[in-house]
Amino acid sequence: MSLxxxxxxxxxxNAKAALGNANLQSALRGSRGNFVLKRAKxxxxxxxxxxxxxRGRDLKDHVLANxxxxxxxxxxxxxxxxxxxxxxxxAEDARRIVLEICRKAGAKAVNKGKTMISEExxxxxxxxxxxxxxxxxxxxEYIIQLRGEIPSHIIAPAVHVTVGEVEAAFRxxxxxxxxxxxxxxxxxxxKEARGILRSKYFEAEVxxxxxxxxxxxxxxxxxxxxxxxxxxSQSLPKVHIVMASLEKLVPTPEDASTVLRLLARSATGxxxxxxxxFSRGPRRPEDPDGPEEYHVVxxxxxxxxxxxxxFQDMLRCIRCGACMNHCPVYQAVGGHAYGWVYPxxxxxxxxxxxxxxxxGGQLPNASTFCGRCEAVCPMxxxxxxxxxxxxxxxxxxxxxxxxxxxxxxxxxxxxxxxxLYRLAARLGNGVLxxxxxxRGRIASLPxxxxxxxxxxxxxxxxxxxMDQWKARR
Amino acid sequence: xxxxxxxxxxGPLPRQGSSHGPQRLVQFMQKLEAAAATVGRVSxxxxxxxxVAHELRRRNLPAEVRMGADPTxxxxxxxxxxxxxxxxxxxxxxxxxRAEFGLAExxxxxxxxGPDNPVTLTFLGETHFVMLxxxxxxxxxxxxxxxxRERGLDPRTLNxxxxxxxxxxxxxxxxxxxxxxxxxxxFILTE
Lengths: 473, 191
Description:
The structure holds 2 protein chains of 2 kinds.
Chain A: H1 11-19, H2 22-31, H3 34-44, H4 49-65, H5 67-80, E1 84-88, H6 91-104, E2 109-112, H7 116-121, H8 123-129, E3 133-136, H9 139-146, H10 163-173, H11 186-203, E4 206-209, E5 213-215, E6 220-225, H12 229-235, E7 239-245, E8 249-250, H13 253-267, E9 275-279, E10 293-299, H14 322-325, H15 328-333, H16 344-355, H17 357-360, H18 372-376, H19 383-396, H20 402-415, H21 418-436, E11 441-442, H22 449-452, E12 457-458, H23 465-472
Helix pairs in contact in A: 4-13, 10-11, 16-19
Chain B: H1 2-7, H2 22-34, E1 38-42, H3 48-58, E2 64-67, H4 71-74, E3 82-85, E4 94-98, E5 101-103, E6 108-112, H5 119-124, E7 127-133, E8 137-138, H6 141-150, E9 157-161, E10 166-167, E11 175-176, E12 183-189
Parallel strand pairs in B: 1-12, 2-3, 2-4, 4-7, 5-8, 7-12
Antiparallel strand pairs in B: 5-6, 6-9, 10-11
């Protein structure tokens, strides 16, 4: 999906549709709790985890405070290794640069390791429009490419797809295989995809991967995968393009290890992902394999505008996905409802920064402010605080719907008149208690169908807080 | 910036990354197995071909293995094993590489790409065999980076490998053998 197709303004409608989508709900039920449990176990097994989080925050803050220096240092190191850094200020620039490299390489097919920056820039649509076939090689990305979808999760892109839907997609796409073949087991499905993609690795002229980390000192790009697809995508074609955003920089390999110690544990609960690959430049003259060209497309796309603002801390994000795995809203509606590339709490903060609060302002409202995202964030990013900042900006820009503004106006009027406010609270308290009756629960209430449609509202059980406070002082 | 880089600082050193003595090798092997790799010891280099042949038979694989130009392997008598040299090909039942280092912290192998150990062998072998000297097992990332620099290595890729490839993208259930090896077996040379 490209920038222009963002459906973020329709978040409410998207969420409603997602809640009513039985297949999606079944897929979400299957994954719910899984990531949470695994992360908790991994965190438990590493007593130094919180100290590493502090270090992770500090090292990213240090880089962001000196970003210009680090960017120059990184470019010099890549150039010294025989690679080329391309600066892409916008997604449009990134598309143009990637197309130029592909054309020069005479590319007919481009293999892709998982890269969210490519999603952000709409690289697949651009390649296809120019007669070049993009082939997603991450198993999850491959599945959703067959289904004509975008990722619904930054590390588990096909988390919304049921096993039955995977089988259907394979039968529809792999028509050269016998129609009566057995695909009843998960490993048979995986084997089929492995076989098909294995030959594609040898056909592509260009491989595009993302980067989890860029190391300024050495000019290395680092990718982390469990499947090995990112490595086949970069080792077999003639040209390797790394697509990364500038906040991926860390100073040294030691700093990269700090990020790695946090990343896999927070993402999947692994101590280490299976493959962590540090790539530096093109193949050496004596090398029998590896790409002949190495390009890094370094994307800004609005990130440097976040420096020095309320949203700078968001640039510490290492894209582990822990915030969405622990988010009650994400777990209920899935990633597609968010309507653009980045879902969940990190998406709710990042999306308005990148595509504007006018388009993305709905997302920061999709929060219960339970705070679990911040509690599990390995980089200590104050996500709820930043969502509140966005809500304020949305309100200031008068983008909030009139009903909400009117409601806030009424509340504000009362809140500025404490005596009246307490009287109203006492009245409301009594009325709700009356409706709740002996059950103490309210099954339906005018203007509150959004709550009572799914569950009862607990009725107040005692006097108002202020009354109790006064009595106990 | 220069001061930060020169300091080579890190976060707190995890206890699991600071094992030493005989315990280090034990932890390394345990972590390898926890990552779904298998591991065996070889007491001298000349025994390696026999050990590889044995593992191939045990796995019901053809008596052939693909490897690079690593001098560690080229002096060995591979006997009846069809030991071919070169990069990884489309169909590659078994490959053999030498790892430069191991990390006991997580059961991770560190391989350097190049003519001695082409990177494609690490990813295209259905079964990937890796030889590693016991003396090259580090405690964790900190002493690994120091040892890596000391050896003066500058390959196109440094590949950290922790177990065979896997994916949970179908049905959120982990399956081994995604795009890389289905099995990873490590020979630890203890001579």
